[in-house]
Amino acid sequence: METVREKTANEDGMLMPSSKEDEYLAQPKLPVPRILFQLMLIGGVLLYSSYTILIHLCEVDGHVPFSNAAAVLVIEVTKLLLSIGMFLVEVKQEQQHSSVSVTHYLGFLRTRLREEYSAEDGCNTSSSATVTSKFRLVAPFAVPAILYTVTNNLGIVIQMEMDPATYQVLGNFKILSTAILFRLIIRRPISYRQWFALFLLLVAGIINGYAACKPSQIYRLTNFDASTSNSSSVLHITLKGIVLISIYCTVSGFASVYTEYVLKKRVHMSLNVQNATLYVFGIVTNGFLYVFQESAVAGSFNILRGFSVYTWILVVTQAISGIFIGFVMKYASNILRLFIISSAVIVTTVLSVLIFGLVLKTSFFFSAGLVVCAVILYHL
């Protein structure tokens, strides 16, 4: 007898790996029309680009009035609630029986969840899995949460070893590390033309990062004295900073590629269930981080302290953006995610001109041109 998930998989037309080698390259069929997906990409870029704008709109007297850890935690909770809500709707739509009673729906939901968490990689089964197999199924979802927590905290430490502009510039090497790890882990081929397109994307990010620097801010490294100079206004970097930024780019790239690997390896699972599982671990790690930071600073544990209307708009937009990035990772790739991020930087700059009166520099047009060329070149 055909199970609920088996029927769903057949209807969705999921591509299942035919061999162990192909398992790493399995690509689920896009569940929406391509034209709709392209429109979603435009919306995704706008959502991603709204982050910096909304952060500035949240500022009071030049400072953000809320805890960054609190905002991240609330965003994770919002993403979890949205994912659960979408899964409940998904199950309701798949319910094939005429009965609409709450009891029957809950029974159907329980069966569906059991199948989601009991099926082995790529295999559909309704039998109960052992505790060990369930742990092996769920544990990989904890890895991205831990890695993202590490990179978030590492980013703070790194900025002690270099100025903000250098941090932004060198941080763009995440593009290179992500592409290399994508090739090694996902095993999808990248042509020489596509590598060159990614290189253009990297150059565009470097140019955009240094564009904010004034000529008077550039010092020789040998002339820099941390005790007498404003470290945020002088270009500088230490040997420790070079090591840390290298680790940061590698771990950040691995976190995103590993997330894609988990989503695609367990192609039989609903994306909403996968996202919800990821967000549960994200809430746990960020929850510990929030408690640690608040106990060291304020001690009041008022998670909504300093929240405004703009803050809540930030929470909702970033929650939707995060869910969409998960959609991109499962049904497209991390490479497309890189293009979304790079395009969002350009859109953010344009929005800053319209909202804050930012004056554009020539370097911006050069950087934007490189991003456009990279997008076209990669997808030729």
Automatic annotation (TrEMBL):
Localization: Membrane
An example molecular function term from Gene Ontology annotations: pyrimidine nucleotide-sugar transmembrane transporter activity
GO cellular component: Golgi membrane
Keyword field: Membrane, Sugar transport, Transmembrane, Transmembrane helix, Transport
Name under which the protein is recorded: UDP-sugar transporter protein SLC35A4
The organism of origin for this protein: Taenia asiatica (Asian tapeworm)
Presence of keyword Cell cycle: no
Domain of life of the organism encoding this protein: Eukaryota
Pfam family, one: Nuc_sug_transp
Principal cellular location given in the protein's record: membrane
Transmembrane feature ranges: 35-57, 69-89, 137-159, 165-186, 195-213, 233-255, 276-293, 309-328, 335-356, 362-379
NCBIfam families named in the record: nst (TIGR00803)
Membrane topology: Multi-pass membrane protein
Taxonomic lineage from the root: Eukaryota, Metazoa, Spiralia, Lophotrochozoa, Platyhelminthes
